[in-house]
Amino acid sequence: MSSFFAVRRHLLATVAAAALTAAAVVAFAAPASAAPMTLYASPSGTGTTCSSAQPCSLTAAQAAVRSLNDAMTDDIVVQLADGVYRLSAPLRLTADDSGSNGHSVVWQAAPSTRPVISGARAVTGWSLADAGRNIWRANVGTGIDSRQLYVNGAVATRARVQVNRADFTASSVGMRFSNGALSYLNNLANQNRVEMESVNSFTDRYSPVQSISGNLITMQQPAWNNNNFGYDTFTSPHRAGPLYLTNAYEFLDAPGEWYLNPGTGVLFYIPLAGQNMSNVSVELPTQQSLVSIGGTYDAPAHHITLSGITFTGTSWLGPSGNQGYVDQQTGAYLAGNWNWPSFSSCHNGCPQFEAARPHWFQMPAAVQISAANAITLSDSRFVNLGQTAIGIGNDANAHASGVGLGARNITITRSEIARSSAGGILVGGVRADAHHPGDQRMVNRDITISNNRIHDLGADYRGVVSVLTTYVTNATVSHNEVYNMPYSGMSIGYGWGSNDAGGSNHYANRGLYNYQPRYTTPTTAANNRLIGNHIHDVMQQMNDGGCIYTLGWNPDALISGNYCLRTNGYYGLYFDEGSKYYTATNNVFSNTGTWATANYWGGENMGNWTVTNNWSTNGSTNITNGDRGNVVHGNVTVANGNWPSGAQAVMASAGPQDGTAPPGGRIVGVQSGRCLEVPGSTTANGTQTQLWDCTGAANQNWTYTSSKQLIVYGNKCLDASGQGVSNGTAVIIWDCNGQANQQWNVNSNGTITGVQSGLCLDASGTGTANGTRIQLWSCHGGTNQQWTLR
Fold first, then answer.
1. Residue 291 confidence (pLDDT)
2. Helices and strands (H, E) in the chain, number of each type
3. Among 39, 521, 550, 668, fewest CB within 10 Å belongs to which?
């Protein structure tokens, strides 16, 4: 780097002037021996010294790395002190921030800490605005807009009302209503900020309002035309789910709802039961993304690791403009102006719609990786995000760098992705350069996603999955736990067979190949694997999906050792249009609908599946041996829970591997079946924990750290009150301080014991009812002292 020597001299001079020890000065010189060089940052860091005594900011630490990383003999470590690093702009890591000589630049949490990189600002200074409706207000400054608000670690609900589809008549202009009970809509303030949301079969669409008068809701364009164009459209869905009007002050009518007026800078909120606005934690996102890791194909970002960090607090504002959010499939959406036919003629596809298909956009992620090699995200948390959490090698339109695709040797491991507005991890693009790249450096390949917990996603964009790999070569998605998803659990492949070698007569008849090539060569999708994942409680809101969902050709794809449980009556394994060359073996499907199905409608060039030695609790399938080149045998229907030993082994080993992922999520009492929670979602120090029905809310979500802390809300620790060591000591929450009364052993016999006291976490009085208080008690082997972390 041209500025290397000048910046380095400046850093050394600064260190000397600060009269640091010789050892500290040596930390900025090229090390003579193989020892990592450590820089130090903190949320309040200043200057350029970046020492343990004088930590610097994130941006100063980045500048220091750039002055030192040209001739590395070991890793450079940027150690982040505890606290919240509030970004004024996303952190951009390029080739200039990369390792050299095979060594890495490692951004990691200091020991026993959990630093937070946030795109949000804390909101305080609440006052009562409307006592009758219990609406509170806070001033946040004019000009700030957001689609999300995070309260006590959970995504709050934008003010909305659910309306009946039968009360509206659609036209090319908008929606006319005749129900007199809706006449108040004509008098709404700030009408052009109102949106309509339609939850359909597999799409969740938003269309903005222009104005309302005379019982006519005039919609903004092009969002309205695009949302009524193609398949599963706004006004003609394949399945009619809820229809909402959102984002007006007048819609504030339920606890947990909020509304922001950017013109006045006032934020309104109705607290949930038990929430005290004097101590509630409220985060308003001001950034649309957090981190961009990527360079160019000539100079990719490389050898960068982020570890032990919480990433939180974003809001993607794309749907707030006149494009709305024209959902198509798993986060891909349509935008722009097209040659729309008459309003009523393209609600189940048409040639004009096929012109748009090759130009779909992808939702930009909070953490973006493209044009990059040897990147690792580990032991981290991605929570309270307004979009896809992690985007790897997506199309260029989804990357702030302007360069998409080109992700190689990327690892996401031992992390939690939870409580966010859209999906978890999206690998690959959907446009032509993703499936038939013009430059081989664009190929996404060698991706590992392992030992993560991914749950409670899709709060605002429901048609998403935990992990989707589109056009990728050599991806392994293994030993993750996935639960509480509105749509499918995991998805592999894309394109419905239309971009595969030889194309699809079905899509020829639709007119697609008038607008793109009918390719004669394979796509980049090959040798992708879903192995040993525990996927449960999915398909909770949408339909036309399942536990594991596939699209398109995927030579040598393997689906093995997965445990699928509870799909709300939908499919276990779902081969959708164009799926070909998959092997599914040694999987367990429990309490699903049809355990294996193929959507043969219009899906020629499907099959060549090997479906063998799986176990299921129903025998329903339309995949048979010999049909379309399929090999199907050895599949067993299991009744009354009599799982054979092979199935039991799959169930026991599915999900994060012992010792590789810190237990987290819910702490469930073995005796009661209820969850350990903080009452009323309060964050007040000293609140005693209790049992309650499991809801998946933030007050029931715990993370077990390497320093043996059980953390809730990201900054409160499970604590033995008053450092008590006697029977009956209340188990409370308190600001994390690293003391022994906040350290816990999670034991193989199901008990959780205090490191300081040796006593067991105990449901008081062997209680099992909601509200049973949690205390410490001498361990006696009772089931009221046994817990599962899941």
1. 98
2. 8, 67
3. 521
Angle between helices 58-68 and 4-17 (to 10 degrees): 120
Alpha helices in 41-132 (DSSP H): 58-68
Q: In this structure, are residues 745 and 779 in contact, taking their beta carbons and an 8 Å threshold?
A: no
Task: Report the phi/psi class of residue 460: left, alpha or beta, with left for phi > 0 and alpha for psi in -120 to 50.
Answer: alpha
Tokens in use for 266? Answer: 């006032």
Q: How far apart are the C-alpha atoms of 395 and 393, rounded to whole Å? A: 7
Average pLDDT over residues 631-644: 96
Q: What is the pLDDT of residue 334?
A: 98
**Partners of 585 in beta bridges:** 560, 612
624 and 553, same domain (yes or no):
yes
Name the burial class of residue 568, with classes exposed (0-12), middle (13-18) and buried (19+) by CB atoms within 10 angstroms of its CB: middle
Domain boundary among 269, 285, 301: 285
DSSP-derived 3-state class of residue 190 = coil
Closest CA to 475 of 446, 444, 515: 446
Mean pLDDT confidence for 508-530: 98
CA 625 remoteness from chain centre: 38
**212, 277: one domain:** yes
Domain termination site, one of 55, 81, 114: 114
Q: 40 with 141, same domain? A: no
Query: Do 297 and 374 belong together in one domain?
Result: yes
Range of the domain at 437: 291-312+356-653
One-letter amino acid for residue 14 of the chain: T
Q: Are residues 746 and 709 in the same domain?
A: yes
Share of the chain above pLDDT 90, in %: 85
Classify the phi-psi angles of 733: left when phi > 0, otherwise alpha if psi is within -120 to 50, otherwise beta. Answer: beta
Spatial CA neighbour of 515 closest among 524, 533, 503, 523? 503
* Residue type at position 246: T
Q: Report DSSP letters for 222-285, one per residue.
A: THHHHHTSSSS-SSS-SS---EEEES-GGG--STTEEEEETTTTEEEE-PPTT--TTT--EEEE
Q: Are the CB atoms for 415 and 381 separated by under 8 Å?
A: yes
Query: Is 337 within the bounds of a domain?
Result: no
For 185, residues 6+ apart whose C-beta sits below 8 A from its C-beta are 177, 212, 215, 217, 245
Q: Do 610 and 683 reside in the same domain of the chain?
A: no
In the block, residue with structure tokens 């995991």? 490
In the block, residue with structure tokens 């046994």 = 786
pLDDT class for 140, splitting at 50, 70, 90? very high
Mean pLDDT over residues 419-423, rounded? 97
Number of domains in the chain: 4
- Global pTM? 0.83
Q: How many CA atoms lie within 13 A of 686 on its CB side?
A: 2
Distance CA 256, CA 280 (A): 12
Output 27 or 607, whichever has higher pLDDT: 607
- How many residues comprise the chain? 790
Average pLDDT over every residue of 83-102:
97
285 pLDDT above the threshold of 70: yes
